[in-house]
Amino acid sequence: MLRVRDLSVSFGGVMPLDDVTFELPDGVCGLVGPNGAGKTTFFNVLSGFVRPSAGAVEADGTSLLSMAPHRRARWGLRRTFQQEQVVHSLSAYDNVRIAADEVGAAGDQVREALAFVGLDDAQRRGRHLTMLERRLTEIARSVVGRPRLVLLDEPGAGLAEEETERLVALIRKIPERFGAQVILVDHDMELVSAVCGNTVVLDFGRVIALGPTADVLSDEHVKRAYLGTEEVV
Amino acid sequence: MSVASVALAPRVPRPAAAVVVVFVLAIIAVAVPAVFSVFWIRSFTTSVIYAIACAGVGLLYGRLGLVSLGQIALVGVGGWITLRLGHGTSLPYPVLLVASGLGTCVIGVMVGLPALRLSGLNLAIVTLMFAGAFSIVFNATGFPNGGGGFLGPATGSVQPIALERPSLGHSDAGYFRYVVIVAALMFAALAWQLRGRAGRQWAVIRQSEAGALAAGVDTTRSKLRALALVSFTTGVAGGLLAANAGVLDPGNFTPSESILLFAVVLIGGAFSLFGAVLAGLLGQAMPSLLSELGVNGNAILVVFGLSLIHAVSTAPAGIAGQLHALVSKARRETVDGR
Questions:
Q1: What is the CATH number of the domain that holds B138?
Q2: In a domain, B12, yes or no
Q3: Tens digit of each residue's pLDDT (9 = 90 or more) over B176-199
């Protein structure tokens, strides 16, 4: 369970997040909204890269905002980025070991994570991996050890349709297999519909819809916000 | 897919590779003194010493993306400590080297800690200013070359007293072998760190600091570890340099020498320890070669300038990277030809 209360972020006069309050239940949840809605800023607040001007975030009963960024990761907060972050000079195995080293996960847990994502040749260096394999390596890095909250920022970016289907199946399994909550940011509404039980919609830094994904995505306000005709008050 | 079927990456240096490295080092240690004149033995000795400093520059830049233009000052600090302790105490030379490494490590971390918040051009400028500050201090106080007092400069009528070399390296040939062994130990320490958890942390920090934090890496501590390690090995290089000629001159530790050191690392290759060896040879043996050929010493700056343009524009991994690519290509062709 992720609880967000009165969360605001201010960059000078701009408010990427403006008094945001919502709760997301366990499982896979979606976080959607048009460009500039505040999705990545929200992930950056959770990761500790952006300090909010007000508010609180509680995950699994733990207050996240008081922890240093690297301690959040060791607590169980993991994330991927819009731009893939696989280290090109290291093998896929060592890419996963980076996180395993820090969270105290052993070699068999690294292999378990790689087996989970189905990466068959972990000896290859990052520069020799396809985009799908890089995304899979990042997911393996996110689930190694004991993840509690996994943030996936557009994990399907740059993937073909059949590759996205493989990703969908994988993301669905994370909560059951690792006991972690997953929050997915993506512009691909088919992907969000396929994997997210609940979804929250942001627009101009404010929550405009929250609930079961099917209901939220059929909401007229949400549709208009995506088309750019909704004035959010 | 089962856990057991996941192919593992190689974890540690292969024993065969380590045996090859030891064998090559043994040949170098025996062959160089046997084949070359004293002039060249001395030139290769300083090349190996500077290769240690180059390895430090390469680790900071190639693995962490940190441009440090102050490394030559740390060589000077290591040399200063060795001379000071060497003239002031009866400690054996290996202990002097370790003390120089540790002392330089402390100074390097103290100076580098605030600078670690910087990156790119800002860090380059700050470290260059650091090199300048140390250069001023070295010029003002001199090196403890056997004079009186704590600073011990040999000025005026006081003649410099050369620091005695270690008993195993009294001769030029013996000292070359001694330096090769110490350099091998320093390189082994760097390689050990690079292949372990620290190396993986540095690799992900270079790729993306945000990515490193998201993976749980304490980036400040990891950078500090690199700085401490590099300061130690660079300090040891300074200690070796101090005993090489027995005295040190402030003119060898100017900011321009620091820039030159960074330039030869880029040309040799900042991404591998082999590149550091090439950089050491470029920086020290190449001027000797030009001198032997009767070419003006300043011509080396032109050579470095052109080489740097070549490296930056077409060979970011330096000569070492180009050689590695050539060997890889030859291997592939051999395999394909079977």
A1: 1.10.3470
A2: no
A3: 999 999 999 999 999 999 999 999
Q: Read off the tokens for B225.
A: 């570890």
Q: Is B203 on the interface with A (CB under 8 A)?
A: yes
Predicted pLDDT of residue A220: 84
Query: Which residue in chain A has the smallest CA separation from B204?
Result: A87
User: Rg for chain B (alpha carbons), in Å?
Assistant: 21
Residue A69 in contact with partner chain B when CB distance is under 8 A: yes
> Chain A within 8 Å of B293 (Cβ-Cβ)?
no
Give the domain range for residue A228.
Answer: 1-38+48-73+188-233
Whether chain B has a CB inside 8 Å of the CB on A79: the answer is: yes
Contact at CB, B214 and A85, closer than 8 angstroms = yes
Q: Residue A121 is encoded by which pair of tokens?
A: 């040749």
Across A151-159, average pLDDT: 89
Number of structural domains (chain A) is 1
Cα angle, residue B26 at apex, residues B25 and B30 outer, rounded to 5°:
115
What is the DSSP secondary structure assignment for residue B6, as one 8-state letter? S
* Out of A87, A99, A121, closest to residue B207 by CB: A87
| Partners of residue B9 in chain A, C-beta under 8 Å | 91-94, 122-123
Q: Which residues of A31-44 are buried (b: 16+ CB within 10 A; e: fewer)?
A: bbbbeebbbbbbbb
Cβ-Cβ contacts under 8 Å, B200 against chain A: 87, 90, 94, 97-98, 101
Query: How far is C-alpha B53 from the geometric centre of its chain's CA atoms?
Result: 2
- Please write the tens of the pLDDT for every residue from B130-155: 999 999 999 999 899 877 777 877 77
Number of domains in chain B: 1
The complex's ipTM?
A: 0.89
Indicate the SS3 state at residue A161: helix
Q: What is residue B67's three-state secondary structure?
A: coil
Question: Do A98 and B196 contact (CB within 8 A), yes or no?
Answer: no
CA distance B66 to B246: 33
